[in-house]
Write a structure and sequence with these properties.
The structure is a homodimer.
Chain A (H helix, E strand, L loop, with lengths): L6 H11 L7 E3 L6 E4 L5 E10 L12 H17 L4 E11 L5 H17 L3 E9 L5 E10 L15 E5 L4 H10 L8 H11 L5 H10 L2 E6 L4 H12 L2 E5 L7 H10 L3 H8 L5 E5 L1 H15 L3 E8 L5 E4 L5 E3 L7
Chain lengths: ~325, ~325
Amino acid sequence: MARPLGEFEIIEQIKKALPKKAQGVVCGPQDDAAVLETPSGMVMLATCDVLVQGVHFADEALENPWQLGTKAAAVNISDIAAMGGEPAYLLISLGLPSNISPSFIDDLYKGLGQTGARFGASVAGGNISKSPGQLFIDVFCIGFAHPTQVLYRNGAKTGDVVAVSGTPGDSAAGLNFLLNKQTTQLDAAMQRLVRAHQTPEPKVALGRILAQSKVVNAALDISDGIVSDLGHICESSGLGAKIFAEKLPLSHEALTLAGVLNCDAIDWALYGGEDYELLFTTAPKDFGHLKEKVKKELGLELTIIGEMTAENKTVSVVDADGKIRTSKSRGWD
Amino acid sequence: MARPLGEFEIIEQIKKALPKKAQGVVCGPQDDAAVLETPSGMVMLATCDVLVQGVHFADEALENPWQLGTKAAAVNISDIAAMGGEPAYLLISLGLPSNISPSFIDDLYKGLGQTGARFGASVAGGNISKSPGQLFIDVFCIGFAHPTQVLYRNGAKTGDVVAVSGTPGDSAAGLNFLLNKQTTQLDAAMQRLVRAHQTPEPKVALGRILAQSKVVNAALDISDGIVSDLGHICESSGLGAKIFAEKLPLSHEALTLAGVLNCDAIDWALYGGEDYELLFTTAPKDFGHLKEKVKKELGLELTIIGEMTAENKTVSVVDADGKIRTSKSRGWD
C-alpha cells in the first residue's frame, strides 16, 4: 500500500485519529501504561478479542479499515454488554504488516474510537508491533458493574425460558449475501443484513436492563451461533436446553435472501454466529415484564425460543412437528 | 508438533496449568469477561505488549514455551512497575498456528501464571484465536496505584540527575552470547547474561519505592535501550539529556563477553534494550537517600548516569574526555 511507516509516525497518526481528552483517562497512550479512574465499590469487567486477517476477515476487508475498527471494538464491547456492564476503556494491540499506509491506521482508529465513544468506552492506550504475516487487531476492553448486577452464564435453572433479542441469523445472512453478490441485488433490505455482519451493534443498554432486573439467571452474547452459545450456558449451569425451531425470530430480509439462495435461514440463526444479540434465561413468569420494559425503553424485541431442561449438557433443536432436528453442539469452534 | 487442538481442548489445557482460585478474581476465563475486584480510591493502570514469532523471538524459542510465557508476563508487569503500580491481573490473547501441542500450551501458561503470581498478578482470562502464520502471545496487564503515587514520564526537570537500576546492557550481552554460542563457553557468568535476556525480572518493588518517595520526577522501564527510552522522557518533559558513557554501570560479565566478541558493552547498554531495569530522574539532593533506601530494602544498586538539560529533546552521550559520542536517538524503533 505504501512505504513502511515508523513506530513514531504510526503513533502520531493514531493521536490524530482520536479525541484529545477522553473520559476517565488520567493518562493515555503516551506512558508505560494507561492510568484510568475506577468507580469505587464496582467490580471491573475485562475482556479481549482479536481479529486476525485470514481467520476473522478476508484480505478484501483491508480495503475498509474503518469497518474493521468498528467491528473489533463492537465484538469486545458486546462481551461487556453480555455481563450487564458499562464499557469504560479500550486498549488496542496491533500487529502490522509492513505495507500499511497512514490512512489505513487513521481509518482503523476512527472506527475503534467512534464505536468506543458511542458506548462509553475511551481508547486509553495499546501497543504496536510488526507482524511478519497477517494483520491482527487485538482489543482489550474494561468495563464496570455493580457486584450484585452481573450476568453470568452459570445460573440457568430447569424450566427457565430461553430468550433472544433481535433477529439472529442476520449476520450470517449478510455474509452469505457478500459471498453470493452476483445472484442478488443490493437493495435496502440486503444492506441491513450486510450491516448486521460488518458493523454489528453491541447491546449495552439491553445488558444493563437485564442485569438490573435481577430476574435473569444466565446470559451471553451470540458470537458463535445460538446452539453453540446456549451450549456454554448448559455447560456452565449443568443443564440441557431445547430450542423450538419455529419460534426463532428470523428477519423478513434473511428469509427473503434464504429463498433466493436456496438456504435455510434457521441454520443461519442456529449456527451462523456473529449476531451479537443477547441470549438469556429467566423464569417463565418474569419474561413478560422484561419484554415489555425492553420494548418500551429500547424499542427492541425479546423472543422466547426455547427452555432449559434437566437433560445434562445437551442442546436439542425441535421442529414444529415435535421431531428432534439435531441434538448436539455444531457452532463455530 | 502434533495434531491440531480444538478450542475446548486448549481451554481445558489452560485450566489445568493455572491455579484453581486466584486473588481478586470474582469470575475468571469461563465467562464473556473476567470479573475483577477494584480497590476503591485507586487508579487503574492498564498496559499491553505482544510477543510475535519472527519479530520478538526466533522459531527456536518455540522449544521453550515456559520461557516465552515468563518473558511475555514480565515485559507487561515491567510497564506497571515503571509507573509505580502493583500488578493485579493478566489477560492473555493467544494467536496459535495449527501445529501447537497440549504440552506447549501447558508450559506457556505455567510460565505466564508463575511469573504473574510472583509479582501479584492473577491470570484472569483471555482469548484464543487461530493464527494462519506466526504464533503471537498478547498480554494485557492491569495494575493499581494511589493517584498521587504514579510515576509518569513527563515530569523531568532541568538539572535532575538521570539514574538507572542494575546493570543495563546485560540483556543485549545475553542475546549476543546466544548468537555467538560457538565462540564462548556457557559458564555461570554467561548463564546470568542469558537469563537477563530470556527471563528478565520486572522491578515492581523498586517502582513502588520510587513512587512512594514522591521525589522521582520521571520514570520508565528500559525496554528499547537507554538512549531511546531517555528520549521518551525528554520528549514528554520538553527537555534534553546528557549521558556520561563512563558512568554506565556495566556488569563484569558483559564486559568480559564484549572483550571476547570484540564488541562495545557501552553500546549494549545504550542501544540494546530489553533490560527492564528502571530509569528515572530526580533532583541531585534527593538521590543519595533513595540509593541508600533501595540498597538496604531491596539489595539493588542505583547509579547516576547523566543529567537533564534544557537542550530541547536531544539525548547526547558524552565520553570520559568530554567529547560527544553521539547526539541523537538510535534505539530500537
